[in-house]
Amino acid sequence: MAQVAECVAPAGPGVDGYLGVAQRVEADLTIVGPEVPLVAGVVDHFEAAGKRIFGPRANAAQLEGSKAYSKEFMARHGIPTARFQVFDDLAAAQGALSRFEYPVVLKADGLAAGKGVVIAKNKAEAEAALEGLFSGALVGDAGARVLIEDFWRGEEVSFIAICDHDTALALPPTQDHKNIFENDQGPNTGGMGAYCDDRILTPEQKDHILEHVILKTLAGMAAEGAPFRGFLYAGMMMTADGPKVLEYNVRLGDPETQALLYRITGGFADTIFAATDGTLPSARLTIPDGATACVVMAAHGYPGTPRSGDTIHGLGEAMEATVFHAGTRASGAEIQTAGGRVLGVTATGTELSGALDRAYAAVDKIHFAGKQFRRDIGQKGLKRYTKNRVGT
Ligand code: GLY
């Protein structure tokens, strides 16, 4: 970012620190990226100060801030989602396991940077995960309340829309890769790679999710006195029984953002501005045909305890892609790892295969000790298109 923008630290602690920056640089519009300041009320704080900002207020950000809130909201409004129960103590949760089949989904209620979901294959795994969640060992305070949910098979799709109360502009679908290892094995992460391609969903599926999930969510939030403005991200599972909502996020998603914004070549800032002044229906984004792919390179130890301080080599040679820095820091002339997900290597193509080839050509030139990445980003997309072409 420092190559194209001025990066500044917050002007003080908490959400007021962000307002201080927006006031100092006389920002016309502030777009909030991550969930933590949204849940902490950064939008409410900017609005009280008369500064234009795009994102949900704290009461609407609860859709991501509390999984129990969002599941109970979906149940109230008939939004398709898996059967669930909410627990505040370990013994009750362990006692309820007999009412679910394996694999079973265990979720921390609070914010956990994508690491609060465990899919347990049997009772022993489920009990260990419940202990880890309730004791704080897995995700700290976020696991003080836990949800047990039915597991649904299918493909995951990230469906994100730019929303302004009762109006939504759907962005092209993306697909994330949550597990740390190839073939969707190993623990969940925040996301090890994503691609964006219109063909992830048929036009009918897209219309269905827009109507039965996004617009229904907006109507429900408005009816409950928490109207939603911001990016609404519905994490969907495309089951044999129809699309179901796995979870909401109230932001663009990482690494979906890299893949998604790389496809939008015009109109983004104007569209977000329009969503803050009631003119979203007349806004236009320029999204050329084609596909994009983002391959995440993660640090040794991620998603457990990532190691920092490994020197990253080859960034200057990886010209096939744009390398977005996430967990890095400068140390003299070197760039070093400084977080779990270190880099998002992102490329475009007229076809998904070309975007993936370019992203992996760049990945293969970047080296750091203990680097982890998945070789199979986008493979489900490639298989889907091959299958459709031969008409099977
Ligand atoms: N990639 C999923 C998320 O951002 O939560």
Word description of this protein:
The chain folds into 4 domains: 14-57, Rossmann fold (3-Layer(aba) Sandwich); 83-150, ATP-grasp fold, A domain (Dna Ligase, domain 1), CATH 3.30.1490; 155-282, ATP-grasp fold, B domain (D-amino Acid Aminotransferase, Chain A, domain 1, 2-Layer Sandwich); 291-390, Alpha-Beta Complex (Glycinamide Ribonucleotide Synthetase, Chain A, domain 4). It has 12 helices and 19 strands. It has helices at residues 14-24, 35-39, 42-48, 58-65, 67-77, 90-96, 123-135, 203-223, 256-263, 268-276, 352-363, 379-389; strands spanning 30-31, 53-54, 84-87, 104-108, 117-120, 146-150, 155-164, 167-170, 174-176, 179-181, 185-188, 193-196, 229-239, 242-249, 291-298, 322-325, 328-331, 334-337, 341-349. Strands 9-12-15-19-16 form a 5-stranded antiparallel β-sheet. Strands 3-6-4-5 form a 4-stranded antiparallel β-sheet, with helices on both faces. Strands 8-7-13-14 form a 4-stranded antiparallel β-sheet, sandwiched between helices. The mean pLDDT is 96. The structure holds glycine.
